[in-house]
């Protein structure tokens, strides 16, 4: 690992975020060369326009934060976000389906969104909301994401009463194997956190504290 910023989705998902806030995180992403800026769908056109030519991707969330949306609506929302300029989509699963062990329902839900996202040339990350699930349900959800053709599994929305843990990232990596992406999100606040999650198997980090994480790396490199 040579550049922690390349792992980070610089994230602002507060419902009261203003255009000024969105432009600020976009400017930070350009400055620090984050992997993406992750925002609610309404801000996708603004972020995509602001980041054009920068190499920083535009990421949006779908069925957020509860996942309790009709599959057809998730697929429509995802397609609309991609058409508006999103390069990556982070969708929330049907958490109730995971809790009751309904793998077929999860595959159908994720698969419909994956089809819509991939048709637009974007990639799909699947948020399983680990804080709400027992380990067997986490494994089930990860397995469903693989079967449905997702590109990543992701720990958390940050709105579900808990965030990423090292144990969950290790479990997710063990379940999906070496080829699928694993995103740790929720509670990644320092360089030490970031490095620990990467060591555990994360290939992407969702963080609203990206600037502090990168500046921590830069400070460490100076000594």
TrEMBL record:
SMART domains per the record?
Answer: DeoC
EC number(s) given by UniProt:
4.1.2.4
* Protein location: Cytoplasm
Which EC class is this protein assigned?
Answer: lyase
Family annotation (CDD domains): DeoC
- Give the residues annotated as active site: 90 (proton donor/acceptor), 154 (schiff-base intermediate with acetaldehyde), 183 (proton donor/acceptor)
Q: Which UniProt keywords apply?
A: Cytoplasm, Lyase, Schiff base
Entry-linked Pfam families: DeoC
Known catalytic reactions: 2-deoxy-D-ribose 5-phosphate = D-glyceraldehyde 3-phosphate + acetaldehyde
Q: In which pathway does it act?
A: Carbohydrate degradation; 2-deoxy-D-ribose 1-phosphate degradation; D-glyceraldehyde 3-phosphate and acetaldehyde from 2-deoxy-alpha-D-ribose 1-phosphate: step 2/2
Q: What does this protein do?
A: Catalyzes a reversible aldol reaction between acetaldehyde and D-glyceraldehyde 3-phosphate to generate 2-deoxy-D-ribose 5-phosphate.
Q: Which family does it belong to?
A: Belongs to the DeoC/FbaB aldolase family. DeoC type 1 subfamily.
In its UniProt entry, what is this protein called? Deoxyribose-phosphate aldolase
């Amino acid at each position: 690992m040579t550049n922690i910023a390349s792992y980070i989705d610089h994230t602002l998902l507060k419902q009261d975020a203003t255009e000024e806030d969105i432009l600020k995180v976009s400017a930070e992403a350009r400055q620090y060369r984050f992997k993406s800026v992750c925002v609610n769908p309404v801000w996708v056109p603004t972020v995509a326009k602001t980041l054009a030519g920068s190499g920083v991707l535009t990421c949006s969330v779908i069925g957020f934060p509860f996942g309790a949306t009709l599959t057809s609506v998730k697929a429509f929302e995802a397609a609309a976000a991609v058409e508006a300029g999103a390069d990556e989509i982070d969708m929330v699963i049907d958490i109730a389906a995971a809790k009751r062990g309904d793998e077929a329902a999860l595959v159908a839900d994720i698969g419909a969104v994956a089809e819509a996202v991939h048709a637009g040339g974007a990639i799909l990350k699947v948020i399983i909301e680990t804080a709400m699930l027992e380990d067997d349900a986490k494994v089930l959800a990860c397995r469903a994401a693989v079967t449905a053709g997702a590109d990543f599994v992701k720990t958390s929305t940050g709105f579900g009463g808990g965030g990423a843990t090292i144990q969950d990232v290790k479990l997710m990596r063990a379940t999906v194997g070496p080829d699928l992406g694993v995103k740790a999100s929720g509670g990644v606040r320092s360089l030490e956190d970031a490095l620990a999650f990467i060591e555990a198997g994360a290939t992407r980090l969702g963080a609203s504290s990206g600037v502090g994480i990168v500046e921590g790396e830069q400070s460490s490199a100076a000594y």
